[in-house]
Design a protein that fits this description.
single chain; 51 residues; mainly alpha; 1 helix; 0% strand; rod-shaped
Length: 51
């Protein structure tokens, strides 16, 4: 055995720069319109069934 020990995990091959900001932006890009659509669906369904 070699005496070399590493505490950090090996980097994945082809791992690029940190993309957490891009991922958060993509979730917001999809999540905000989805949340608004669900809100409108519930609001209009309530009007439909309550008169």
């Amino acid at each position: 055995m070699s005496g070399k020990s590493s505490t950090s995990p090996p980097e994945a091959p082809g791992a690029g720069p940190d993309r957490r900001g891009l991922i958060a932006f993509a979730w917001l890009w999809v999540g905000i319109p989805l949340a608004y659509g669900l809100y409108e669906l519930v609001r209009k369904a309530t009007q439909l069934f309550t008169g």
